[in-house]
Every structure is written in C-alpha cells, then in structure tokens.
Amino acid sequence: MQSLRFRLSLMMFLQFFIWGAFFVTMGAYLLQVFEGEESLNSIIGSAYATHNWAGLLAPVFVGLLADRYFNAEKVNGISHLLGAVLLWIAAGITDPGTFIWVMLAYFMLYMPSLALVNAIAFANINDPDSEFPRIRVWGTIGWIIAGFIVAGTVLGFVQIPLLSWFTGVESNIQSTNIPLKVSAVISVLYGLYSFTLPATPPSARGEKFDVKQALGLDALKLLSEKNFAIFSFSSFAISIPLAFYYARTNDFIAAVAFGEQSPSFMAIGQMSEVLFMLAIPLFLARLGIKWMLLVGMLAWTARYLLFGLFPGSTALIVLGIALHGICYDFFFVTGQLYVDKKAPKHLRASAQGFFNLLTYGAGMLIGNYVLGWWGDRISLDGSTMEGWLAGAQSFWVMPGIVALIVAAFFFVLFWDKTTDQETPSEGAA
C-alpha cells in the first residue's frame, strides 16, 4: 500500500511540476520573445487564455475517450508524450499567433489529464477521504519545487542552480525558453512513467455519451434556487479578476522586487494554500459558508490594492502573494463544499463540473482577454521596473474594484444558511 501511495504521489508531483515550471513564468518569457510587438499585453492574455479554452473542452475529451474506451493511465501517458513535443516546438516559436495556437493544442492535451490523474488515484485507493488529500498535496509540492528550480533559489536563502549547471545560462532563466524545455523533458519522463501506473479501465464503458452531462449543464436546473443562482454568478464574476493574478503577478514582482528569483517567491502563494487548506474545517465551524466565501472575495480586493497602491513595498507584495491561500481556499474549496451540499446526489458530479465551467472556464477565459485589453489600454510596459511602477496602480486597482463590487453583490443578496450546520463536520472528517 505504501508503494502504491508513493507511485500515485509521484504522479501528482510530476503532473503539477510540469505546469508550474513554465506557466508562472510564461508572461515574463513572452515579454522578451515578443518585445516590440503591437498589443503585447493582449498577446500575453491570449496565451494564458488557451488553458481556459482547453478547460472548457476537457470534459468532452475525457468523457469520450478515458471514460469509455481506453485506460486512463494510457491516455495520460500518450497525452504527455505528445504534449512534450508541443512544448518543445513552442520554445522555438517567434510568432505570437503561432505560439498561441501551439499552446492551445498543448493545453487540449494537458487539461484533460487533470481529471485523468484524479480518476487513476480514486480508482486505486481504498479510502479516498483520508488517502486522496495526502496524495494530492504532492501536486502542490511539485508546483512549489518547480518554482524554486526555475528561480534557482528557495526564497533567496538557499541557492539551487540546477538549471544553470545544465544549460550554462547564469541569470534570468525565467525570461528564456528554458522553462518550456524543462517542462517538455519532464513531460517525456512522466508520459513514460504513466504507462507503469496501476491499470485504470474505463469507468463508463458501453454507456452513451452525453455532452450536456459532461460539461455539467445538467446542473442548470439548480439555478432556479435563488441563493445557488447568486453563488453561481458571483463565482463566474470573481474569476474574471482572478486571471490577472495568474498571468501578470510574476513579471510584476520580477520587475519591482525580486528579479530572476520571482518564481521562488510566487511559490509563497502555494505554501499559503496548503496551510489554509488545513485550517478550512476550523474556519467553517467559526464563520460558516457565506462569510468564508466573502472573506475569500475580499482577499482578492486586498491583494490587488496592495499590488497597485504599494508597488515599491517588498513586504506588502509578499503579503499580497501570501493572500493566495485565502483567495483560493476560502472561495474555491469552500465553494466546492457548498455545491456538494446544495446539489442532489444524482447531480453532484454535474454541479461540480458546472462550477468549474463557470470559474476556470468562462470566468478566467474572459479575465485573460480583459487583462490583455486593459494592459494595452493603459499602455502598460510590463518589461521594466519603470513601466510597472508607472502602471501598477491603473493595472491592479481595476480588478480590485471589480472583486469588491462582486463581494458587495454577494454580501447583500446571498443568504443561505441551510448548509452551514452540516459542512463544518463534513470538512473536519
């Protein structure tokens, strides 16, 4: 059993290491490789939007193939081997449009694998409630380690110049194509490793495929209940400003505070996420669903105001990054718990799919295009300290205000206490 848990934990580690190694720094890389291109901020937003487009279509891919025809571990292996080729190709592209199309193709392979690794894990453990969190946390650790390796340091205290040794590049690795190539190499190794994972046959072999069910649209009927409708709209709307954080925080903090060490400091957000994840049952017991969700939304506002109003303060920038644990856990994890309690048993899977469709799909998709448009509108120069210091207030305060408006809307209209008495005990279990 220990051997199986190790194998599944390594699967999660590699899965998220690949994503974390290039995704956090992709904006900084695009600023360099496409320097001088018109509408550069929109190019960055469009590049990050590719994973949202793929996320919208991933349930169809998984439903058609892994759920009905092929073992999940084999589909996962093939996806990452093909993905490695696309990442390596992307690392050599100098045309923005071509880069965006190649990244869309890559994420069409990668995003479905997020569901595949969960399916592999759940199918091969006996007690998901206790075992899965201990396996899944290694994904977050993989993301954190990827940031340390790309930055070549652990928060500036411990130097780990692995990439410098291998590549001969001594500085500013995050602004080169090296992170993309690292992810490509690890993706090859992970793809091969996937074929050694426990066999996970199709769970719905012979069943008719339903696109509506795969996308979670069966849960639309839940919108007839007022509080669920308000929650759903708020989830969609708050995900629009969320996109600003993922796409532009790294190049922002690289310019104004941490330079080439910025990916290491971005990992503070994931470390905070782990800590607050452990504290969710305690907070739920004290605050309840509504206040947990509201605090999560307000943390978005606080983070963006810290970035926008105090771009010269390293301490406040670190605080803004550390708020990621509250932003993510208090809203998304609590939101998943709320959806689980509100949906009838036969609609729970669809309802969770609908929640993901609204947030990581539609909400963040729109957010990535908005951040590109907004950056170009205010003529943000994200490649220099001077550019960020001049544009930080305009760029970051806008999504902070949007998050505050969504929080106010939610606070005034959402009054659902029917789940608060059950959820804390469920979360503690």
Topology summary:
Layout: H1 2-23, H2 26-33, H3 40-64, H4 72-90, H5 96-123, H6 128-151, E1 153-154, E2 158-159, H7 162-167, H8 178-194, H9 211-214, H10 226-258, H11 262-309, H12 314-322, H13 324-342, H14 348-377, H15 385-413, H16 423-428
Antiparallel strand pairs: 1-2
Helix pairs in contact: 1-5, 1-6, 1-8, 2-3, 3-5, 3-14, 4-5, 4-8, 6-11, 10-11, 10-14, 10-15, 11-12, 11-13, 11-15, 13-14
Quick structural gist:
With 429 residues, the protein is mainly α. Helices cover 76% and strands 1% of the residues. The chain has a two-stranded antiparallel sheet with strand order 1-2.
Radius of gyration: 21 Å
SSE sequence, one letter per element: HHHHHHEEHHHHHHHHHH
Strand content: under 5%
CATH homologous superfamily label of the largest domain: MFS general substrate transporter like domains
Mean pLDDT: 88
Number of strands: 2
Largest sheet: 2 strands, antiparallel
Going across the biggest sheet, name each strand in turn: 1-2
Q: At the first level of CATH, what is the class of the largest domain?
A: Mainly Alpha
Shape estimate: globular
Which structural class matches the secondary elements?
mainly alpha
Indicate how many domains the architecture comprises: 2
Helix content: over 70%
Would you mind describing this structure in some detail?
The protein contains 16 helices and 2 strands. By secondary structure, it is mainly α. A hairpin with a 3-residue loop joins strand 1 and strand 2. It starts with a helix and ends with a helix. 52% of the residues are buried.
